[in-house]
Amino acid sequence: MAARPAAGKLAPMHVTILGGGGFLGRKLAARLAAEARLSSLTLFDVAAPPAMEAPFPVRCLAGDVSDPAALAAAIPDGTGVVVHLAAVVSAAAEADYDLGQRVNLHGTLAVIERCRALPAPPRVVFTSSVASFGGGQDALLPDDSRQLPGNSYGAQKAAAELLLQDATRRGMLDAVSIRLPTVIIRPGRPNKAASSFVSAILREPLLGLETPLPVPEEFRVWVCSPRLAVEWLRHAMTMDTAPLGLDRGVNPPGISVSVAEMLAALSPAQRALVRHEPDAAVGAIVGGWPAAFTAERARHLGFAPQGGMDAILAGFLEDDLDATRAERAL
Amino acid sequence: MAARPAAGKLAPMHVTILGGGGFLGRKLAARLAAEARLSSLTLFDVAAPPAMEAPFPVRCLAGDVSDPAALAAAIPDGTGVVVHLAAVVSAAAEADYDLGQRVNLHGTLAVIERCRALPAPPRVVFTSSVASFGGGQDALLPDDSRQLPGNSYGAQKAAAELLLQDATRRGMLDAVSIRLPTVIIRPGRPNKAASSFVSAILREPLLGLETPLPVPEEFRVWVCSPRLAVEWLRHAMTMDTAPLGLDRGVNPPGISVSVAEMLAALSPAQRALVRHEPDAAVGAIVGGWPAAFTAERARHLGFAPQGGMDAILAGFLEDDLDATRAERAL
Questions:
Q1: Do A149 and B166 touch (CB under 8 A)?
Q2: Do residues A85 and A102 share a domain?
Q3: Is the pLDDT of residue A59 over 90?
Q4: What's the domain count of chain B?
Q5: ipTM, interface predicted TM-score of the complex
Q6: Which residues contact A265 (CB under 8 A, 6 or more apart)?
Q7: Are residues A148 and B165, on separate chains, in Cβ contact within 8 Å?
Q8: What is the average pLDDT across A119-124?
Q9: Both A246 and A312 in a single domain?
Q10: Are residues A58 and A202 in the same domain?
Q11: CATH classification of the domain holding B37
Q12: Any idea which residues of A carry the catalytic annotation?
């Protein structure tokens, strides 16, 4: 048997992070390095993730997640946990259907194929998304809500969840699919996610920069901080999955906030940097996502609840403001 | 623009039935021949379907539904409707994961790829299944129930539905996914569906043959007749899909019957041919399927409601008893 972590505590095992070059993957890797319990770690992404300091060997590999040979290298025999963050984000998957299908759907199928070839079934922590649901602004989704996505990214994520759930039932792997809220405040630059503006309307003013707001101020979003997202991924790596039963999808306890409530966390001078520029294409995608969930099951399963906007802002100022300023030469 | 049928009436167009050699495909083809409105028909299956009489040209092709070249031949430019019945059934998909994935998932992906290459998006009528839901014996599922399948066949069907729904939203095709109940009384022989016994406990005694009953008599099943299944497929070929909106899955109005209610349709001498032989493997699969649905949306969409056991039995005696007796040389 490959090493399997007991709930809460990491065993000395190999872990692979697919999409390990992204901002959540790097933050999770840093957290695992600080825990100092793994025997080794692989970070895998389209471009090789940057080398990092850790008290165990770290391999940084480049490859396509839908390529079986690349995955065989990325997920060696004996891997205890695969954290599967590799994805083409919402607006990019909407703009390029083939790319989204290849990475978001066929990539996950390739992960399943690799995992079932391992000597023992690994834990697979998969990031699904609030975008896999419909419902829109008026929704307060209970935990047994169906996924009726209005965008290709969400459809690919929901289909991948079904296939991971079935692979789990068959004993090929042991999946936990976390439907992440919109993660704010993302460091770095705006990206191709339709929800990119939700971070930008806070991050850019904090950097002293103007930024467009494509939706009205009463628009509500289901959000979490990078700190909580990493906390949830880490919890899913070692939680007891027996209570999940057949249902491997988790709606974690984010918070529902309006744009106005987000902007209230800024100073008046910072708020003045946010320009109202309605964008129907962005509104059409994010307007379909549910603005709130009950998230009761996740709380019972030990997923920590998100604090308020103050905690989210403080986390960004402590963790990411300086690095973002340096990266963007501001 | 390729021919697109107006609601209710077939246009003179080409129609392709994938899985056209199966019993539902052949019954639908016979119905289309009787309507005498198509310009041509293709029947496609793993083995070439038998030739049939029709007032329009009928091609019978053999091929694998997951093979793009075979599908390009089966679905020519100008095809107005693709009826996608090709599937590996429940117990077979449970016994052979790779086969189920290839046909039920990758086959549907290949259908999407072929349809998006056509000059105009065709109607796609897809048979999904009650097996794509969980819930079990106590369930009465409303129309917005989520699909949490406890078997690979159901997971593959539910994932395929998501991908067809997204392809519809993108304008690649125009899908209607019908979650068929267990169809009784199937003609011919027992097959590899876990639900095969639901037909066998009626068909075999009507043929004067003994048959095993793997579940208790109080066990309830959501069923429809072959006549209604064909009626629903035919309705989906020409219905107005605008009222479906984003949600392309339909739970048609079957009926919930217990084994005891089914057996009550037989004579005492016929009932004596049914042997109680509990089968845990069969019970584990069909026991997870919901035994009843509200099916309100489908009624509003014009899907005809199933009659009672008398109608189901009468349909079999009129349509299929003699042919089954001849086929099996009884």
A1: yes
A2: yes
A3: yes
A4: 1
A5: 0.95
A6: A202, A309, A310, A312, A313
A7: yes
A8: 98
A9: no
A10: no
A11: 3.40.50.720
A12: 153
